[in-house]
Amino acid sequence: MLTKFQAKLFFLIGTFLFSAIFLFLTFDSLRYVYSNPSAKTLSDEVIRGKALWEKNNCMGCHTILGEGAYYAPELTKVYERRGPEWIRIFLKDPQAMYPGERKMVKYDFTEAQIGDLIAFLKWNGELDLKGFPPKPEFKPETQTVSANNVSISQPEKFKQICVACHAVGGAGGNVGPALDTVGKKFDIAYLENWLRDPQKIKPGTAMPKLPLSESEIKDLSAYLSQLK
Amino acid sequence: MKYKSQKIAYWFFATCMLLLSLQIVYGFIMGFARMGFDGLHDWIPFNAARATHTNLLVVWLLTGFMGAAHYIIPDESESEIYSVRLAYIQLLSLIVVGVVSIIGFHFNVWEGRKFLEIPRPLDYLVVINVLLFLFNIGMTVWKGKKHTTTGLVLYFGLFSAALLYLPGMIEFNSQTVDSYFRWWVVHLWVEGVWELIMGGILSFLLIKLTGVDREVIEKWLYVIVGLTFLSGILGTGHHYYYIGVPEYWKWIGGFFSMLEPLAFLAMAMFAVSMYRKSGRNHPNTISLYWTIGSAIMSFVGAGFLGFAHTLPQVNLYTHGTLITAMHGHLAFWGAYAMIVLAIITYSMPLLTGRKLWNNSIGLFAFWASNIGMLGMTGAFAVAGIAQVYLERKFGLDFLVVQKEIQVHFLGLVLAALVFTSGIVAFIWNFIKFGTPTDEAVGAEAASGDISLSSRS
Question: What is the pTM of this model?
Answer without folding.
Answer: 0.91
